[in-house]
Amino acid sequence: MLNRLTTNTRIFFEGAYYSYKALFRWLRPATYLASEVFAPLTMMIFFVYIGAYASGSNSASFYVIGNSLIFAASSGIFGVTMSVGGERWSGTLPYLFGSPANRWAMFVGRAVMHVLNGMLGVFIGLGWGILLFKLDLSHTDPLALLLTILITTFSTSGLGLLMGCLSLITRNVMLVNNTVYFLLLVFSGANIPVGDLPRWMQVISQGLPLTRGVACARTIIDGGSLADVLPLLQVEFLIGVILTILGYFLFKIFEIEAKRMGTLDIF
């Protein structure tokens, strides 16, 4: 029992590290800076100026905070999907499925590095907000904000694990990912207050990851305490757990389907 636990732990952490290192070209400094530092900057500038001009009422901090949290979704959705689907593109998926490795440790471990990378992306976004838009963090509880960022990144990574399963049976999973990502820009409240959305959109937004994380971050930066946002964070964490478990079961089903349909290789 102890040996099995040790083996699964090693698979979890080594799989997390090597899948991130092997499958991502952004480990080159220039590529990483372009995709993780400067691309978020241009996106934030776009939404801050367009949003503040169009609304006439929301301050720049509203859009800075919302889009900083969106960067967690970017890493969670695209990064985690590539950690799962990249095995297929690299031709290593048959070896992965042929191994006796614990599927849960192997599957969930794919999200670990992207949770950390997503948190870093949020901090970079907030840093741009401080430098360019005078975002005020003087009333912020740093531990509460850190916990909010961690849970939000985890929940969006759960969505990425779910999306990553589709890469086992389709060639164009990025089309699905882009659609989900841009829907989050609208439904999560990052750029449009949830209360201003039509009722049916508000109902959908409450079932999505990120929505509560964005609301919690704004509350904390405005001076709220952890106790003020804890109920929302608990639901956000629960959503991440549900998405991860659902993604795992789909991963098992799609593994069987991929073997049956002969789609383990992309070509």
TrEMBL record:
GO terms for molecular function: ABC-type transporter activity. The keyword Cell membrane applies. Keywords: Cell membrane, Membrane, Transmembrane, Transmembrane helix, Transport. The chain crosses the membrane at residues 30-54, 60-86, 107-131, 143-163, 175-194, 232-251. It is a multi-pass membrane protein. The keyword Oxidoreductase does not apply. Residues 30-254 form the ABC transmembrane type-2 domain. GO terms for cellular component: ATP-binding cassette (ABC) transporter complex. It is found in: Cell membrane; Membrane. Belongs to the ABC-2 integral membrane protein family. This is Transport permease protein.
